[in-house]
Each structure stands twice: as structure tokens, then as C-alpha cells.
Write a structure and sequence with these properties.
single chain; mainly alpha; MetI-like fold
């Protein structure tokens, strides 16, 4: 009887194996890295907002001063105003563009989809620079604004709409790609008008994608620093206020207050989006029929014209930046030359800044991919330790709601704290730039990795355990090859964002680690707008080359590691 009781106890509480202990220790180590990289800096920044210059606790005095200062307080309404207007514009345009790509038979869909992704390859600063050349005081089309100035809310809305457009488009394309043809066949059988079908079938089916896209666009525009900095003029928003308080006035406490205010709506939008997504239900059943668009000449040519106009705007924006980068001296000497690419003669960091960006991006992609994918593997495939895995998952989601400006300022407070020995080791080095970049873009990569890992049956790990094979062999020989497309996507996502980001690193670089995106900002501040455009285009060239390498690598990986997917 005693032996039976002991056997039952062993079944209920299985012995923790060596592999389980190794995986738990590894997950704790990565969790500590996340705590150091996101939680502690945010907590330090929050505490700084309640202190004065001497570090003494002053309660809500800084917040009272913020709300009592009209110039600062009005920035909240300016940020909300810009974010709401841009969200309406981007959602309307991206929905029609996505509808054209998924629900029509218009020609050249591949071309329009390719063009729509161009803004992802450029820093947000580029759209502001391009608008200066189009509609600025000496712009080629300034008369089109009918006396209005591009330096202000008009320019910020246009520039922000340009660079966030592909973010919304990808989400809405995914939402519209999922549809059951039977619903549309039933509507046709009932002789329901196309307009009514659109509002009763199409929109309800895509509502969760639209809601998610709305929150993404709102958060990106609300927290953006690049476009308002270049084209905003005297129109202050919260992101530029942080920069002015920290860089211009050295008022770090007020910078922390503005950061908290900027963080609040971003966190609220994130929480609401998570709640909405949990309510989403499956739209396709096992009996669903894939919707295949039917040709309709009038509809197809209408959407072709619409997409052509949007594509022309996108090409016009990046084309003007490229033209400005080649002009000798705008607008007096329009002769083309490469003088603006002589960055070593400009204020901003020279060619070294460009090489630093490539170095930082490669480090971020390499180390970030290893850390993030392995962390996702430990959470998804680990056994037991439910509390620890849940906490890790929760921390991994936090960076998605933290704007880059807020995170960068938080790093200043945390790593410069007298009690923090880490600051002496990494502050002002390439290491802190890599850390903040990986942390800033951690969540999307983590979710991508988790999604890929969820597609693998847990039987792989069970069979491996039954054969007494170490987990790292299964990870290296099975998991990594099967998930290689997702791993490559994660590395490319980190590389592209590291090349184009400016908000997260603008407070953290030193004279030896100036980055290309920061050089664009510095040259624009110094009045060297054409060289700034040239540096922005160098970033774009690098990202385009990276995408080409990614496409070739994906093809080769599919042939080598993904042969099992082909019939």
C-alpha cells in the first residue's frame, strides 16, 4: 500500500530533470536582462518625475508645474489632434488600398504591394525632409497649399500618414484575406445590394483588424519624434517636448514628467487593443470556402486608379528626397552632383555615423534574434514553472507599449544613477545602443517567434525526452531548422528598425557612436537639409539591400531546411 502511494505521488509531482533546470535558469537569465532593459529604467524614470534637481522627493509638484504651463499642457491636445486626424486618414486610405489588393482583380497587385512597403525602409525623418522640398518656403509645389504653411500640423499629419501607412496596411490586408465566400453567395442569392453587403459582411469581418490597425497608427503617430521635429515648426507635441526639455533646457525632471504623460495614452491604447483582441472569434470554420474575387471592370479600374495615385505619392516622397540629395544647392543651382554625400564635411557624424549604424544593426539583429527566439522557445516549450513562464511572457509584452523617446530617457536615468555600476560599463558605448534597440523592438519579435513555435507539435519535445536526448539537440536540429523562416524574419525586422530608429537612441549616443539616423537629425538642425536627405537615402539603400539579401536567404533556406513543406 505504501509503494502504491509513493508511485502515485511520483505521477502527480514528476521529478524536475536536468534539462528543465537548465531551461529555467536560462529563462530567468533572459528575464533578468528584460528587467534591466525595460522594467528598472521605467521605474527609475517614474521616480525621477517625483523629484527635484537635487533628488529630493517633491510629490506631484512637477506634474502641477507641467499642467500649469500652457506651452507644455497644450502639447497634449496637439499630440492627440495629430494622432486622431492621421489615424482617420491612414485607416481610410489603407483600407481601400488593402481592399484593392485582396478583393479585386485589378492588374499589377504585386507592384502596388511592393511600393506600399517603401516607407518601412526609411526613417520617419525622411518624410519631413521630403515635404520641405515639396511644400516648404522654397518648395516646388508650395502654391498648392493656398497660403497655408507646411511647417505645422498640416506637415506633421501628411508626414506621419506617409510613414505609418504600411503598418496599417499589413494588418488590414491580413484581416481582409480571411473571408468565407458562402456569406457573399448568400447575400447574392438574397439580392442584397453591394453597399449593404459591404456594411453587413465585409466590415464586420474586418472590424478586429481595423481596430488593431487604429490603435497601432494612433500610438505610432502620438509617440513619433522624427516627423514633428523636422516639419513641426512651432507646433509642439509631447515627443518633441521631451527632446527640448532634456537636450535644450537640461530639465531632466520635467522631461520625465512629459515622458510619463506620453506613456499614459500609449499604454491605454495598448490595453484596450489587447482587450478587443481577446474578444475576437474565429471567422473561418472547417467548412468555409475561400473567397476568390470576380472580375468587375468598373470596380477594378477604379481601385487601380486609386492605388496608382497612392503609389505616385509614395514614389514622389522618396523620389524628392533622392533628387534633393543630388542637387548641388537648392534652389539656386540644380546641377546634379554627389557633393551632399561628402558627410565628413557636414555637422552630424560623417560617414562614421553610417558605418556605426550598420554595425549596431548587425549586432542588434544577431544577438537580438538569439535572445528573443531562445526566450520564446523557453516560454513555449518549457515544462512546468508556470508562474515563471507567465511572468516572462508578461514582461516580454511590455516594450510594445513603451515609446522610444520614453525608453531612451529612462535609460539615461537608470544607467547614470550613482548606485548603478552598469552605467560605467556600457553608457556611451555601442552596447547600450544595441540593448535599447533589442528591448524597444522585443515584443513583435517575441510574438513572431511564439507564433512559429506554436505551429510545432509538443510531441517533438516529448519524443526527445523519451529518447533521453538533451533539449538543446532538439532545439538545434529540429526547432531551429523548422522555424528558420520566422528566425530570418525576426533578424530582418531588428536590422531594419535598428537602421531607421531615432527616438530610442537620440539620448544615448556618444561622439564615438553617432548613428546615421541621428546624423540626419543633427544635419537638419544645422540647416544642412540636402546632406540630411542624402544620409536618409543611404539608410534606405542599406535597408533595400538588406531586404534583397533577406529574400535570397529565405529562398535558400526554404530549399535547404523547408523541403518537407513541398509536395
Amino acid at each position: 500500500m505504501t509503494d502504491m502511494t509513493e508511485n502515485k505521488a511520483q505521477i502527480v509531482k514528476p521529478k524536475v530533470s536536468r534539462d528543465d533546470w537548465i531551461m529555467r535558469i536560462a529563462m530567468i537569465a533572459i528575464g533578468i536582462l528584460l528587467v534591466v532593459g525595460i522594467i528598472l529604467p521605467l521605474f527609475t524614470m517614474l521616480s525621477k518625475s517625483f523629484e527635484n534637481d537635487d533628488g529630493a522627493f517633491v510629490g506631484l509638484a512637477n506634474y502641477i508645474e507641467f499642467f500649469a504651463t500652457p506651452a507644455l499642457f497644450n502639447s497634449i491636445f496637439n499630440s492627440l489632434y495629430i494622432a486622431i486626424i492621421a489615424s482617420v486618414v491612414v485607416l481610410s486610405v489603407s483600407f481601400m488600398y488593402a481592399y484593392a489588393l485582396t478583393r479585386t482583380c485589378m492588374p499589377f497587385k504585386w507592384f502596388f504591394k511592393l511600393i506600399a512597403l517603401i516607407p518601412l525602409l526609411t526613417p520617419s525623418l525622411l518624410s519631413g525632409i521630403s515635404l520641405v522640398y515639396w511644400f516648404g518656403n522654397q518648395g516646388v509645389a508650395k502654391d498648392m497649399l493656398m497660403g497655408e504653411s507646411i511647417y505645422g500640423p498640416i506637415g506633421v499629419v501628411i508626414g506621419s500618414s506617409y510613414w505609418v501607412f504600411p503598418h496599417a496596411l499589413m494588418i488590414i490586408i491580413t484581416a481582409l484575406s480571411i473571408a468565407d465566400a458562402r456569406l457573399y453567395e448568400a447575400a447574392d442569392a438574397l439580392r442584397t445590394s453591394k453597399i449593404k453587403t459591404f456594411f453587413t459582411v465585409t466590415l464586420p469581418g474586418a472590424k478586429y483588424g481595423l481596430i488593431s490597425a487604429a490603435f497601432v497608427v494612433f500610438t505610432l503617430v502620438f509617440t513619433d519624434f522624427g516627423v514633428p521635429k523636422v516639419i513641426g515648426g512651432n507646433f509642439n507635441v509631447l515627443a518633441t517636448d521631451i527632446y527640448k526639455q532634456v537636450i535644450g533646457q537640461q530639465n531632466f525632471q520635467m522631461g520625465a514628467v512629459v515622458s510619463v504623460v506620453l506613456l499614459a495614452p500609449a499604454v491605454l491604447a495598448f490595453v484596450v487593443d489587447r482587450i478587443v483582441q481577446k474578444k475576437q472569434v474565429a471567422l473561418l470554420s472547417a467548412k468555409a470556402v475561400v473567397l476568390i474575387p470576380k472580375p468587375d471592370a468598373k470596380r477594378d479600374w477604379f481601385f487601380f486608379g486609386f492605388c496608382l495615385a497612392i503609389a505616385a505619392i509614395i514614389i514622389g516622397m522618396i523620389g524628392m528626397a533622392q533628387y534633393a540629395a543630388l542637387v548641388t544647392f537648392w534652389p539656386y543651382n540644380l546641377e546634379l552632383s554627389l557633393a551632399n554625400y561628402d558627410f565628413d564635411l557636414m555637422d552630424g557624424g560623417g560617414w562614421e555615423a553610417f558605418y556605426n549604424s550598420i554595425e549596431m544593426s548587425l549586432y542588434s539583429a544577431f544577438f537580438g534574434t538569439i535572445i528573443i527566439f531562445f526566450g520564446a522557445y523557453l516560454v513555449q516549450k518549457g515544462r512546468g514553472f508556470e508562474i515563471g513562464r507567465g511572468i516572462f511572457q508578461m514582461i516580454a509584452i511590455v516594450p510594445l507599449a513603451v515609446p522610444g523617446m520614453v525608453l531612451g530617457l529612462a535609460y539615461i536615468f537608470f544607467f547614470n544613477a550613482p548606485w548603478n555600476g552598469l552605467g560605467e560599463m556600457i553608457y556611451g558605448t555601442m552596447a547600450i545602443l544595441v540593448l535599447v534597440t533589442i528591448t524597444h523592438f522585443y515584443t513583435v519579435c517575441h510574438l513572431t517567434s511564439v507564433t512559429a513555435l506554436q505551429q510545432m507539435d509538443n510531441e517533438f519535445e516529448s519524443v526527445s525526452a523519451s529518447l533521453k536526448a538533451p533539449f538543446y539537440k532538439t532545439f538545434g536540429r529540429v526547432t531551429v531548422p523548422v522555424c528558420s523562416p520566422a528566425i530570418l524574419d525576426v533578424s530582418m525586422y531588428l536590422f531594419l528598425n535598428a537602421m531607421t530608429t531615432v527616438s530610442a537612441v537620440v539620448f544615448l549616443y556618444s561622439s564615438d557612436t553617432t548613428l546615421a539616423s541621428v546624423a540626419v537629425l543633427n544635419m537638419d538642425d544645422a540647416g544642412d537639409i540636402a546632406p540630411a536627405a542624402a544620409m536618409a537615402m543611404m539608410i534606405a539603400y542599406t535597408c533595400i539591400c538588406a531586404r534583397i539579401i533577406h529574400a535570397i536567404s529565405s529562398y535558400l533556406m526554404q530549399r535547404h531546411f523547408q523541403a518537407w513543406r513541398r509536395r
